[in-house]
Write a structure and sequence with these properties.
Shape: globular
Strand order of the largest sheet: 1-7-6-4-5
Number of helices: 11
CATH class: Alpha Beta
CATH architecture: 3-Layer(aba) Sandwich
Largest sheet: 5 strands, mixed
Bound molecules: coenzyme A
Strand content: 15-25%
Order of helices and strands: EEHHEHEHEHEHEEEEHHEHHHEE
Radius of gyration: 19 Å
CATH topology: Peroxisomal Thiolase, Chain A, domain 1
Helix content: 25-40%
Number of strands: 13
């Protein structure tokens, strides 16, 4: 019996491009206060959010993902990728995955393409998977996208979520490279706690509570079709999990967080959560990247959109030692440390 050919040894995944996109329609806190029992002051002081971008009816997650993906490919100076990994909580439809359509519309037809459902941690999960696709020889180049049209699953009357969640997309291109290069994706720390899946969920529309359009049988519970979050408990878990995952990722890189981290990019969940995590880690304020004031919480898009905007603004530059972390429904969380490469945002 002949041996199975070995996967390419020592191949690392290197970030080669980054891009972000938000839909043009801006909704301010005052816009929300005009239809909900809330205020600009309440939203700013509790979440740090002033405005957010929202899709128009008819615009779907794939539309956002295609724009961000196109920009990331331009940033990398390439037109080809052998795989597309899309992290999203708002696929265009329950079946099939959205990634194949994104690949096709980007001219990447034939690429391996699939979705990752890890809610707001999705980009870190997708980054780890993308790096794995390169390590195992599935692809030489991988487009990793985080995209969410979150407002399409928000209950417009639920002031606890309507003020926080928003729409957008971000993407990076990974290429096969050497383990010593800047931009190498190193150890990615990932974890989950399914015992608390009730904290962040869309109860209806799955196999437990079927959608109203599926065969339900007599007396079946259709379930709530909207995204629900228990804000206060979520807050506590988010702070604990992102702090501990960040410490693990920094330790794996041999970094002392307060001394060695030049830039800290956490999932833009809520400004108070970000401050609490960064304070616990000892990351100085000028080293914290944030765009939540203008874009809100964009789910799986949050981290790559932040990387794209910070790169475009010159706040994140080549050689910065960067710590990334995210937390979200699942519960699921992740973190990783890397040295930012010499890339221009697409
Ligand atoms: N405007 C005005 N009042 C609001 C409100 C809004 N948009 N949302 C909630 N409230 C009210 C509540 O009804 C409650 O009123 P009550 O005391 O009369 O019952 C009061 O404010 C406090 O509610 P609570 O949920 O305890 O507030 P909070 O200080 O925890 O802030 C969140 C609410 C949602 C901002 C906060 O819990 C939070 O940020 N959680 C984490 C959310 C997050 O980041 N999720 C993403 C993870 S990926």
């Amino acid at each position: 019996m002949s041996a199975v050919p070995a996967t390419p040894r020592g191949r690392a995944a290197v970030i080669a491009g980054v891009g972000g996109y938000v839909p043009p329609n801006v909704v301010t806190n005052d816009d929300l206060a005009a239809r909900l029992d809330t205020s600009d002051e309440w939203i700013r002081s509790r979440t740090g959010i002033a405005a957010r971008n929202v899709v128009s009816p008819g615009t779907a997650t794939s539309d956002l993902a295609v724009e961000a993906g196109r920009r990331a490919l331009e940033s990398a100076g390439v037109a080809e990728a052998g795989a597309v990994v899309l992290a999203t909580t708002t696929p265009d439809r329950p079946c099939p995955a959205t990634a194949p359509e994104v690949a096709s519309r980007l001219g990447l037809g034939g690429a391996a393409a699939f979705d990752i459902a890890s809610v707001c941690s999705g980009f870190l999960y997708a980054l780890a998977v993308g790096a794995g696709l390169i390590a195992t020889g599935v692809a030489e180049r991988v487009l990793v996208v985080g995209a969410d049209a979150f407002t399409t699953i928000i209950d417009p009357q639920d002031r606890g979520t309507a003020v926080i969640f928003a729409d957008g997309a971000g993407a990076v291109v990974l290429r096969a490279g050497e383990p010593t290069e800047a931009g190498v994706v190193g150890t990615v720390v990932l974890g989950s706690d399914g015992a608390r899946s009730d904290l962040i969920e869309v109860p209806g529309g799955g196999s437990r509570h079927r959608s109203s359009h599926a065969a339900t049988g007599d007396g079946a519970d259709l379930g709530d079709p909207y995204f629900r979050m228990r804000g206060r408990e979520t807050y506590r878990h988010a702070v604990e999990r992102m702090t501990s995952a960040s410490r693990q990722a920094a330790a794996a890189a041999g970094w002392d967080v307060s001394r060695d981290v030049d830039r800290f990019a956490a999932h833009q969940a809520n400004a108070r959560i970000l401050a609490a995590v960064a304070d616990r880690l000892g990351v100085r304020p000028q080293r914290r990247l944030s765009n939540i004031e203008q874009v809100g919480n964009t789910g799986a898009a949050s981290v790559p959109l932040l990387l794209a905007e910070a790169t475009a603004a010159g706040a994140l530059t080549a050689g910065h030692r960067l710590l990334l972390t995210a937390f979200g429904g699942g519960l699921a969380w992740g973190a990783t440390a890397l040295v930012w490469p010499d890339v221009k945002a697409g």
